[in-house]
Amino acid sequence: CLYCGFRKSNLQLVRRTLSIQETVEEARRLEKEGHRRILLVASEKSRKELVDFLEKVIGQIRRNSVIRSIQVNPPPLTMEECARLEQAGYGTYQVFQETYHWLTYRKVHPTGPKRIYQWRLEAPERAIRAGWNSIGMGILLGLFDYHYEMISFLSHIRYLEDKFGVGPRAISLPRLRPALGAPLQIPPHPVGDDVFLKLLAVTRLAVPYAEIVLSTRESAD
């Protein structure tokens, strides 16, 4: 992703993969800070290796901490892979579309598995078909015109509600911020505070049952 510091060509970033034990230790640190709900974020590595890892790590976290609600934010998975993680005991399956504007999507995701727009778009539906009744959805504000993005996002939610009787348990509307080593530093379509608050209000009115999660990149104010 052109806007992300995690992109593989970013040589400014020192990266490493946590072992299962290290992941459990991180969960226990969060537990000591008072958290009881955590989110595991995974990269676009080999899906088979990733799903095997995620299946094992949730059991270790549950056995070695008091944390009980564990959300997972992996790349889009097949229905079979989604079913494996649902059966493993994860609380919420979360995939953000980032942008619904196809041309913008292809421009900011030029390489890698994430470049396939339709595969990502259908990820929430595959998860629901696989047995998940708790999914997380979101868009990255600033990539394209927010009117288009919000209408598309809410239409996607209505489609899931009408077809499956299930919508997102959690919604996030992060705003694009500068990231270390990312080529795209300035949002092409910036969203100011007043508009951001309006979009949060529209989301609350349109999807009253969902949690709205604020990014830690937003200021306390």
Can you give a write-up of this model?
By secondary structure, the chain is an alpha/beta fold. Helices cover 42% and strands 10% of the residues. It has helices at 20-32, 47-64, 79-88, 102-108, 117-121, 123-129, 146-164, 193-206, and strands spanning 37-41, 69-73, 92-94, 135-138, 170-172, 211-213. The protein has a six-stranded parallel β-sheet with strand order 1-2-3-4-5-6, with helices on one face. Helix 1 (20-32) packs across helix 2 (47-64) and helix 2 runs parallel beside helix 3. The longest helix has 19 residues, at 146-164. The protein is globular, with a radius of gyration of 17 Å. The mean pLDDT is 94.
Backbone CA Rg: 17 Å
Biggest sheet record: 6 strands, parallel
**First and last CA, distance:** 29 Å
Order of neighbouring strands in the sheet with most strands: 1-2-3-4-5-6
- Average pLDDT taken over every residue: 94
Structural class: alpha/beta
- Which oligomeric state applies? single chain
Number of helices, where a helix is a run of at least 4 consecutive DSSP H or I residues: 8
Q: Give the beta-strand count.
A: 6
- Residues in β-strands, percent: 5-15%
Shape: globular
Order of helices and strands: HEHEHEHHHEHEHE
Helix content bin: 40-55%
Segments where pLDDT lies below 50 for 5+ residues? none
